[in-house]
Amino acid sequence: MNLDTREPVVHTLGVLEAAALLRELTAGLIALTDFDEALLALVRVTRDAVAGVRWCGFTALRAGEPAGVAASDEGLAGLDDLRHGPDTPAMSAIHRREMILAADLTAELRWPAWTAHARDLGVRGVISAPVDIDDQVIGVINLYAAAPDLLTPQHQLTAMLLAEHAGLLLAAVRDRNRQLILAGERDASLLHDGVVGQAVGVIMTQRGCPPAEALDVLRTAASSLDIPLREVAERLVRTVSRQRDN
Fold first, then answer.
1. Counting Cβ atoms within 10 Å, is residue 244 exposed (0-12), middle (13-18) or buried (19+)?
2. Does residue 32 share a domain with residue 89?
3. Residues 126 and 146 sit within 8 Å (Cβ to Cβ)
4. Final residue of a domain: which of 117, 152, 177?
5. How do residues 220-230 score in pLDDT, each as one tens digit?
6. pLDDT value at position 192?
7. Which domain holds residue 57?
8. Which residues pair with residue 62 across a beta bridge?
9. Burial level of 113, CB count in 10 A (0-12/13-18/19+)?
10. pLDDT tens for residues 12-41?
11. Domain count of the chain?
């Protein structure tokens, strides 16, 4: 029996490509805390990893207002800019909460102003996939092709997987950023908190280091000794006071 195995091979390659893309995205975004930096990493990795995609862009909104925009290539940044208003594939994807495909912009009648601008820049096809990030921010990732009919059902599947995974990664970036801000606020409070602030001042004087580094030294000591930060601070201040008295 002569079995044609070409279709399963193509399908397998698509799965492997998608898996490689998601793995690379995770590696690139897993430690980031800056949302704009994460968006830029996302679009550049996607552009380089997905065959047939020449450019990639991302638009984020918070409460309907711009919350971030990124483009893999600076020359096409305007395509993802909200100055085009609601008449774009990205905004259609967000409003309809579904993926938008325009495989051939040379014959596309939707979004006339945006489409004319896209064609002028060499774009001939686009997929826009909505991305749920968290309760406050939503977005859309745009995959652009330089020739008509290059974007296939396999690209739509990749875009769907990408949107789901990107939403989780970007939500984690925003959460890490919030935690970083809270930690900074806690640090600022500690630096003005009696004995801890005094201990930080002692370490700054001894080591010639800034307040944040001195606080880290104090935290490391507390962790090593397995005792509360305040107790470490009190011991240090008492020790220095006795040395001065002597």
1. exposed
2. yes
3. no
4. 177
5. 887 888 888 77
6. 65
7. 8-177
8. 65, 137
9. exposed
10. 446 777 788 888 889 988 889 899 999 999
11. 2
